[in-house]
Amino acid sequence: MSDPAATSTDDAIHIEKLYEFGERLSESKDKSQNVKDYQGIMDAAKTSIKAKQLAAQLIPRFFKFFPELSSQAVETQIDLIEQVQAIRGLPLFCKDTPEYLSKIVDILVQLLAAEEIVERDAVLKALMSLLRQDVKASLSALFKHIGTVEEPSTDELIREKVLSFVRDKVFPLKAELLRPQEEMERHITDLIKKSSEDVTGAEFTMFMDFLKKLTIFGDKAPSERMKELVGIIEGQADLDSAFDVTH
């Protein structure tokens, strides 16, 4: 049986060490020289709950200074994912290293089915942060989980959660998120066209209602744009006879 007093002392030592590592890194003029401090933070992440919570905040903060430890840092943060602080820190990995964005979106998408309300709220906020960082890459990563006929989504619950996120969080903020407007409206249209090959009638209606609100399909749009919309509807009508093309 473990001694609570000894455990408490160990916790205090780990926390004190983490503060030391963080302080030295903050004060260092050339942080890349402080490899031992950063490694020390990752090592401490394997100890107590409180140490994990603090490490989950420190790892993303100094991540960009240690590219040689990037894979280890991301994996360590993923191991801490039961901590809300770790979820909140995930978008920070992509600010200076955008190549991690798709991987981080994938991790957050897996967490969308979380039962804990606090955790789910953190996941939604982290996804919105990534969308604001790089909307094009984030949308591409999200739509992978909605699937197409060629590559159907493997997890139906995750697919439903991603569709709900896109409907409730992305579509209402189209004016803010889809910038530059024409380029990003075209990008999300292409993603929807691919996904609409394998959706229910209700999902298809949701997508079409959204597309009709885009500027590129507005009143001043050239006739070929309207033909494009009609073509999408006709393609779906072949797959799902229950869908009313006149809708």
Automatic annotation (TrEMBL):
<protein>
    <recommendedName>
        <fullName>Apoptosis inhibitor 5</fullName>
    </recommendedName>
</protein>
<dbReference type="GO" id="GO:0005634">
    <property type="term" value="C:nucleus"/>
</dbReference>
<dbReference type="GO" id="GO:0043067">
    <property type="term" value="P:regulation of programmed cell death"/>
</dbReference>
<comment type="similarity">
    <text>Belongs to the API5 family.</text>
</comment>
<dbReference type="InterPro" id="IPR008383">
    <property type="entry name" value="API5"/>
</dbReference>
<dbReference type="Pfam" id="PF05918">
    <property type="entry name" value="API5"/>
</dbReference>
<dbReference type="GO" id="GO:0003729">
    <property type="term" value="F:mRNA binding"/>
</dbReference>
<keyword id="KW-0053">Apoptosis</keyword>
<dbReference type="InterPro" id="IPR016024">
    <property type="entry name" value="ARM-type_fold"/>
</dbReference>
